Amino acid sequence: MTKEAIHEAPAQVLDVRGLKCPLPVLKARKAITGIPVGALLEVLATDPAAVLDFRHYARQSGHTLVAAEEGEELRFLLRREAK
User: Fold this and answer.
1) Of 69, 75, 11, nearest to 43 (Cα)?
2) Which of 3, 37, 58, 70 measures 20 to 30 Å from 14, CA to CA?
3) Among the options 19, 21, 51, 65, which is catalytic?
4) What is the pTM of this model?
């Protein structure tokens, strides 16, 4: 995780814990449209497939995956880019 991300509060926190693929990414895709360009969306998940799903989503969408923390629970920070 970058130092910038540690000190920057997310514009929105999306809790998708307990949901299975593809729902975490689909809900994040919808949520990110509701935050300003340049802001962070924090996503909390438990589905192990979400690690690959969010990396792929970031590449395909043009948004930036700032951080991906793995453990019992997963945490992703996505920065909304202009689109």
Assistant:
1) 75
2) 3
3) 21
4) 0.90
- Tokens, residue 41: 């969306």
Burial environment of residue 82 by CB neighbours within 10 A (0 to 12, 13 to 18, 19 or more): exposed
Q: Is 65 a catalytic residue?
A: no
What one-character DSSP code corresponds to residue 24?
A: H
d(CA 13, CA 18): 15
pLDDT in tens, 20-53: 999 999 999 999 999 999 999 999 999 999 999 9
Determine if the peptide bond prior to 24 is cis (ω within 30°): no
Spatial CA neighbour of 50 closest among 23, 10, 13: 23
